[in-house]
Every structure is written in structure tokens, then in C-alpha cells.
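User: Here's a chain of 114 residues. Predict its fold as C-alpha cells.
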Amino acid sequence: MTDQPTEPASSAAASLEAIDEAVREELTSLRESIDNIDAAVVHMLAERFKATQRVGRLKAEHKLPPADPERERTQITRLRELAAGAHLDPVFAEKFLNFIIAEVIRHHEAIARA
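Assistant: Prediction complete.
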């Protein structure tokens, strides 16, 4: 089994055209909501990285290590709990945060080298 569509794109487009107008309108509305949420996520991540850049500069000025494993563990635990409360898979939330943490550490290392 693959993640690839089983129909050619032209067949999928034709199928979409054949659906009921009410279904198409709901699909469009849901996709607009998703697009807005995606935009908000990008802007929130940008704000988060602005803050972590400031942390990285502060750490570099005071010769602190780029990574803080205890803080990272605490944040992962906190995010897993938040995810569970929001009915989001905690494993996914942890993977997402680990990805972000790795990028933040990479930025902090680059700031320290500069």
C-alpha cells in the first residue's frame, strides 16, 4: 500500500466536479479553514523562532551550552500532556517538538560560532 493516489489527477478532478454542490461548498469551506490554520501555524512558528534566537544570543553571550536537555524533557512532557488534552496524538506532538528543538539547537550552535 502506498500514499500515492490510485487515480490519475485528471480522474480525481473529474470526480470532484461530479460531487454534489453542497459537498463541494463544504469541502471548499473546510479547506479555507485549513489554509487559515496553516497560515497561523507559520506565523506562530516565526514568533517562536524570534524568541529562541534571543535565547541563543543570551546563551552565547554567557557561554551557556546550546542545548538544555532538562528543559527539553520538561517541554516534551508538557506538550504530550497538552496534546492528549486536545485529542492530538502525543507521539506526533513529541515528534513535532523534537524537530523544532533540533532546529533551535542548530540555530544556537550557529549563534555561538558567530
